[in-house]
Predict the structure.
Amino acid sequence: MPETPIPVRTRGYKKKERTRRQLVEAGVRVLAARGDGLTVSDVVTEAEVSNGTFYNYFPDREAFIDAVAEHSALALAADAAKRPIEDPAERFAVATMGILRHARRDETWARVMLRLVSRPGSGLDLSRYLSEDLDEGHARGRFTVGAEDAALDQVAGLVVMTMRRFVDGRAGEGAERKAVERGLAALGVDAAEASALAAAAEAAFAS
């Protein structure tokens, strides 16, 4: 059987991708500023496109906000998951540190995450990136719990509360490290090792 040819991305396809990305990135900025008050008019003004262009890509406002969530929420954690780290406890520390360090550096991004987490029916779950690591860590005896709702909620809550402190200007030096350390402790890692793993993750993002 002949091999199916790989479709070539045309100039028009690339332009569509670029326009969609332009809309979503505008949505990130508008959502951070206006929250659920975001309107299609706000977005197209920010993106410098027409209403018709918006509806070529998204059927309605709710579908657009979901796309903003998909674009923004878990990209950093996904990048951390690709790192060749064998120990699930270390992967947890690095992924969580990556999210929190980015939230400190990019207040707009942090505001978007907080808006989306609190939005009913958004489907955004900041604990999703943890599920596999928690189950693997539990199976290997690194954690005392797996990907149970209570454990996921506790760790996701730490992430959200730390982001909120960044946005409110209440986060002190080392807030990311303390949150990672507490998260590891909640999963059953002993205090000394939790402290060492959190410090190592912090050092990995120091530059």
Notes: Residues 75-204 form a domain with the Tetracycline Repressor; domain 2 fold (CATH 1.10.357.10). The chain has a mean pLDDT of 86. The chain has two domains: 11-71, 75-204.
